[in-house]
Amino acid sequence: MAHYTSTHRDCFLNKTKEEEENIERTFQGYKQLVSNLPNEEGSEFFDQICLYQGFWIADVHCQGVIAVQNHFKARSTDIIGATNPKSGTTWIKALLFAIVNRSKYPINNHPLLSENPHGLVPCIEIDLYNGRIPDLEILPSPRIFQTHISYTSLPQSMIDSGSRIVYISRNPKDAFVSLWHFKNKLRAVLSKPPLTFTEDFEKFCKGVSLSGPFWDHALGYWKASLERPQHVLFIKYEELHEDPVLHLKRIAQFVGYPFSSEEEKEGMVDEILKLCSFETLSNLKVNKIGKIVGTPFPNEAFFRKGMVGDCTNYLTSEMIERLDQITEEKCHGYGLIM
Ligand code: A3P
């Protein structure tokens, strides 16, 4: 079946040798720039993370962020799923893809049944600008992308063009626990020793985690959602869990693909929710045995428990209190409850 995947992978084709050399030189410059940033070693599954514009990013992805800032040209029709890692990226990718393409594919023969959501909706800085400059102009509208870039570091054209951004936030306690498991799963693949829970917790609290400080990341999008509600929608992972029908309809409306009353009567909302549910996706063959494209990492690393409140099985009451306190200090003044 021809679908979106082949299209975004086509964006790297047809470069002349001269263009390839220019791109290589450009990335050498970015690499140099990144090497001068403050950095931390060994705390992630990457060798090093660096502090860029107030946020911690893997060195190699930081080059991608700079490339996105310099080269990405947004369209008003672009739809962007934005997240802190482990806050619902896989879920929002699946939902956006299914919403926008619902008239293209029958549910029982859907790309999401044979491909991981990360293969269908690319992360701009990780999948598209990873040492390469894709020709995204060839993609038909609406283009769906995902990013972990903080709101304040988004390319200006994404703000100016009026692209629609759907941000999924998650409570920091569950997100931390999820991230710790994820990092250790990937480290095991690389034969690296696991990260100690308490040391990793300390770093997370200090803001030293992928895309961290966690709270600043969420706050940037929260404030933007208040200032530009037509362009930035802020939804909590927990809300999606609690009332998926309501929030799926909100997302569809927001990105310009509202459900008609006929579709609702025919059960389209429930079908999409079922297709994109943790239960369905995590039990698919592709997500049980497949690998993240171009990496040695298993797709199943993106699926663990998919529940709200798992943090209580891992965090002590002191740890919970500490994270709650940081959340209160950083976020409550802005009306953000996480
Ligand atoms: P847990 O580790 O708490 O289970 P991300 O997609 O941002 O990497 O986040 C991964 C987290 O979302 C994991 O949380 C994973 O289990 C959960 N998740 C993945 N797919 C999901 C889905 N379709 N619905 C709900 N949660 C999902």
TrEMBL record:
Pfam families to which the protein is assigned, alphabetical: Sulfotransfer_1
Keyword Transferase applies: yes
EC number(s) on file: 2.8.2.-
MF GO annotations: sulfotransferase activity
Keywords linked to the UniProt accession: Transferase
Domain Sulfotransferase, residue spans: 77-334
SUPFAM superfamilies documented for this protein: P-loop containing nucleoside triphosphate hydrolases
Assigned protein family: Belongs to the sulfotransferase 1 family.
Name of the protein described by the UniProt record: Sulfotransferase
Organism, scientific name: Protea cynaroides
